[in-house]
Amino acid sequence: MWKLTQGAAVALGLVAALSASAGEVEVLHYWTSGGEAKSAAELKKIMQGKGHTWRDFAVAGGGGDSAMTVLKSRVISGNPPSAAQVKGPAIQEWAEEGVLSPMDALAKAEKWDDLLPKVVADVMKYKGSYVAVPVNVHRVNWLWASSDALKKAGVAAMPKTWDEFFVAADKLKAAGLVAVAHGGQNWQDFTTFESVVLGVGGPRFYQDALVKLDGKALASDTMKKSLETFRRIKGYTDPGAPGRDWNLATAMLIQGKAGFQLMGDWAKGEFMAAGKAPGKDFLCAAAPGAASAFTFNVDSFILFKLKDAGAQKAQSDLASAIMGPGFQEVFNLNKGSIPVRTGQPMDKFDDCAKLSSKDFAETAKSGGLVPSVAHGMAIAPATEGAIKDAVSQFWNDDKISVADAMKKIATAAKTK
Ligand code: GAL
Fold first, then answer.
1. Ligand 1 test: best mutation among 187, 375, 384, 388, most atoms within 8 Å of CB?
2. Both 262 and 399 in a single domain?
3. Is 331 close to ligand 1, i.e. is its CB under 6 Å away?
4. Is the CB of residue 193 less than 8 Å from the CB of residue 184?
């Protein structure tokens, strides 16, 4: 009779216990650039440390449009991943489908309501219950600059207004540099456009025009001035801009070939991954005219209903890990964003992140905190897509007049 030694029995018991609680977690996301991938790897490390198997379902394509298309096909075919990077109003749409795994028990046990700013917690809930877990707070209304390029062009300081911006852009052009590194994809065009609207019209106008889609605001002189400013930026980009990925535009600053990039602070993740130091190799400043405003973009994950107990445990561990203080620090240090969990120490973060953290708190009180339309935080996905297309058509076709663009945007705003 084959007798198990006591030790072997205990060891087997341990393995059995672990394997019951361990499971596989397949995560759909679109963090495939240098900085993004480094950040995502931190979550993989934590999950593997808990004994789970991590299946990385990365879908390339900044801004996530491709990832959302693939996600829909996976769910329709009855084969959803464990978790998917979904944010803003799209969370509500997925919850309405009845396919999400509820997170309320975990959220209550870990007191998420005490740990999250209300503006964030509200986005994560469907009919009052948590159905998504937030990862970070990205600020979108940033202007990035290459220190070398600015020095070469004789630009002494970061521009605070759009007039100062164009003076600096002229100097960069005169120095033979690309003044504005841009990637011609509709989410990048709109990232630039929404920062212009914020700087030209202010947060109240931004809310009226781009969030409430108010007809009067969309037909106003302020919108006209915003579109004129937006089009003027186009003249400072290079012929290689159409279709360029955002991180390759950031690389133009890292290589000192371009002066400015208007982009969210995931761009900082690229500078960091390239070993560049803020304040030395690159500069960050609020986009012109928008220093007292903050366009927020909160990455989050939804969990899909799964049958397997091990997979469910892995899902719960994933959500708990994401909200954990350890992940909140190491992920956001790499990603360029700031922790979404309140009370996190900021001493390891750089001055750009500290400015972001200060401004996030101040604008939440002042009314300067606004949701990013470009990054799916503000309006229904179908409406957002239609407006983005109208703005990109205007950016790409100089024959479209400002007046025509205003009409196209107003029509797109009615898309349901
Ligand atoms: C945003 C996303 C960020 C960032 C960026 C570029 O929509 O929230 O995490 O990675 O796209 O892909």
1. 375
2. yes
3. no
4. no
End-to-end CA distance of the chain: 72
The residue ranges of DSSP E strands in 140-256, in sequence order, are 142-146, 178-180
With respect to residue 171, please indicate whether it lies within any of the assigned structural domains. yes
Q: What are the pLDDT digits (tens) for 316-365? A: 999 999 999 999 999 999 999 999 999 999 999 999 999 999 999 999 99
- Using alpha carbons only, what angle is made at residue 344 by residues 325 and 302, rounded to the nearest 5 degrees? 50
Task: For residue 133, give its domain range.
Answer: 6-137+298-359
pLDDT in tens, 2-55: 455 666 666 665 555 555 578 999 999 999 999 999 999 999 999 999 999 999
Residues 232 and 370 in one domain: yes
Scan for tokens 């709109």, then name that residue: 190
pLDDT at 1: 42
Q: Which helix (H) or strand (E) holds 129?
A: strand 129-130
Tell me which residue has its CA closest to atom 9 in ligand 1. 299
Closest CA to 396 of 110, 188, 145: 188
Distance (Å) from CA 64 to ligand 1 centroid: 7
- The pTM for the full model equals 0.94
